[in-house]
Amino acid sequence: MDPVRNPFAPGAGQRPPELAGRDREVAAFEVVLERVARGRPERSLVLTGLRGVGKTVLLGELRAMAVRRGWGAGKVEARPDAGLRRPLAAALHRAIRDLAVRHRAPDRVESVLGVLKAFALRANPAGAKLRDRWQPGIDVPAATGRADSGDIEIDLVELFTDVAELAQDVGTGVALLIDEMQDVQPDDVSALCAACHELSQSGAPLVVVGAGLPHVPTVLSASKSYSERLFRYVRIDRLERADAERAMLAPIKREDASITEDALEALYETSGGYPYFVQAYGKAAWDAAPGDPITVEDVRVAAPEAEAELAVGFFGSRYERATPAEREYLRAMADLSEGRDEAVPTAAVADRLGRKPSSLSPARDSLIKKGLVYSAERGRIAFTVPHFGRFLLGRDD
Taking Cα atoms as reference points, which of 5, 8, 181, 165 lies closest to residue 84? Predict the structure, then answer.
């Protein structure tokens, strides 16, 4: 098959040629947009799921929906080693520019930009020299006395309020999208929850849409107990059989090509229905096929090629971040789960390694911070990456 015409697109956050199996989430967000447009209160939204299920792709789709409705929209990717103030300022700057196109009062827009600049400048360390101070690139004077206290919780509530009122002026809203939400630092999580709480009480047209690993609800509730009622949590999982087949079949048909039923079956079994794997194995099968249609033999020949690429780019890059002690922990988890995507008891991991559970807490906590594992429930631990256990069991070391 012509590799130039290969429709499959495995990539971090890259939209697949067919966004299958996410109709429910898209429809739910359409309701959020419409309710906010009518001045009705609506909770912010948090998407949770393992790596490779398409959370970032879906986040991008929701952002596009908001933009098509005339909303201001900005996106942030949280990092465990950085605060949220600077990236939030950049994302909301983008959203305000979207709104400015429709607003008839430039002075009003500049006033909010001044508040945003004051908020952003607080990201600079106290006493930093002028040459070392970060400038947010907002071409208006910074406001004083608004969103500039240095307390992120107070400042974020004031900033969100002003941006939401600007959106209300033009009869629209603002969507703030936060990816990798589990990496938001504790103080910033608390501030984000407080700001969303304030907005929900006032009915202001600003919605936060977050995405992160399965333990995000635990991270949020540890900061503010009311976060369980503040956000609507949506679990994103692997594709059902029919949706996975649609994700594979529709792009192939659009290229006037075909695939046999047993090849579709083999692709589903190999990928497990995980969207990223569907793209990876689908791409390899297309490239391996000498002609139309793609057959089960093509899938069989292509599987090692796809797995070798996944071993480097999807699994290996994460494995390399673990220390030797952490790798022992990961391997014990893989042995206990027999390579399946299942949670295992932390006590069983300790028994496997011949150690006391308390002595393994540093390794476990570090792996959680690195996003390699998560606490599925009290006393149990699971991989954040599908098929990671199978990958570990297949390694020679």
Answer: 181
Q: Is 15 domain-assigned?
A: no
Domain boundary among 179, 203, 235: 235
Query: What count of other Cβ atoms lies within 10 Å of the Cβ of residue 326?
Result: 20
β-bridge partners, 261: none
Residues 82 and 101 in one domain: yes
93 inside domain: yes
Q: What is the pLDDT of residue 377?
A: 82
pLDDT of residue 181: 94
368 forms beta bridges with none
User: Rounded distance, CA 24 to CA 96, Å?
Assistant: 29
Name every residue whose Cβ is closer than 8 Å to that of residue 31 and which is 6 or more positions away in sequence: none
pLDDT per position as a tens digit, 11-63:
877 889 999 999 999 998 999 898 888 888 788 899 999 999 999 999 999 99
Beta bridge partners of 380: 345, 377
Token look-up 């932390």 returns 346
